Fold this sequence. Notes:
Radius of gyration of chain A: 23 Å
Keywords (chain A): Endoplasmic reticulum, Membrane, Signal-anchor, Transmembrane, Transmembrane helix
Radius of gyration of chain B: 21 Å
Low-confidence stretches of chain A: none
CATH class of the largest domain in chain A: Mainly Beta
Order of helices and strands of chain A: HEEEEEEEEE
Number of helices of chain B: 3
Structural class of chain A: mainly beta
Largest interface: A-B, 29 and 26 residues
Number of strands of chain A: 9
Largest sheet of chain B: 4 strands, antiparallel
Oligomer: heterodimer
Helix content of chain A: 10-25%
Helix content of chain B: 25-40%
Distance between the termini of chain A: 80 Å
CATH topology of the largest domain in chain A: Immunoglobulin-like
Shape of chain B: elongated
Number of helices of chain A: 1
Number of domains of chain A: 2
Subcellular location (chain B): Endoplasmic reticulum membrane
Organism (chain A): Linnemannia gamsii
Transmembrane segments (chain B): 86-102
Membrane topology (chain B): Single-pass type II membrane protein
Mean pLDDT of chain A: 85
Amino acid sequence: MNxxxxxxxxxxxxxxxxIFCLLGAIAFSALIxxxxxxxxxxxxxxxxxxxxxxxxxxDFKTRNSEFANTIMRIDADLSSLFHWNTKQLFVYAxxxxxxxxxxxxxxxxxDTIIKRKSDAVISKRGLNNKYSLIDVNKKWTDVNxxxxxxxxxxxxxxxxxxxxxxxxxxxxxxxxxxxxx
Amino acid sequence: ICVFKIPGREIPIVHxxxxxxxxxxxxxxxxxxxxxNNIPNDRGLYQExxxxxxxxxxxxxxxxxxxxxxxxxxxxxxxxxxDYPLLKxxxxxxxxLVVFLYE
Lengths: 181, 103
């Protein structure tokens, strides 16, 4: 009864069950940790330029696509989101607006990865948007966009959770300034 | 973060959606994705096959699933089995030996 094979089997079965219970405890306990993150994005200026090329734009067929260049400021305190199960935080600023053909549009302007609690307080000024801000219809006439900060907690084990700040008030997009890219 | 398959490619890709444009009248939704560690977005991947030469967006019907959580290293067993077939044969023959000798 107490041969090597039986003992090895019992040890393996117990340790695997214990490991899965521990992982389950980590995953579910991370859901109920209270946190109080704050964040806000504001646009200091928007300029619309027309042209064929922009930061990471791939469709060069249209000669006057309208691209918006924004200067943003971001203030956030996300340090309360770092607990024992946080591997990293993926933080991104989203602009949301609606046009007559597409009632809901969301575009990510800027993102960053935060790996340590000491880096979790963000206070940035004069940021340019990292990715091209261009609409599906390639025109920015009569559009009002609001910006908000979203975050995604990437865990070591367990569930991916998301959160976001309140949307800012709307910013109107100006007419193209005549600068060509 | 969603899992999607581009038509013509058999391996699904797990990337984050960064742009979204909805138009309820035509029922279409256009999405753009990007890997977190990549600098460019995924349009290079969408357009890699000649049949998808001008593909700028993906649609919800190409999305196969959504990431809900993480269980690290759970797939390493399958990866070791496929990368080192000797391990697979050793394990199978070990199981066969146990069945024959201990029953």
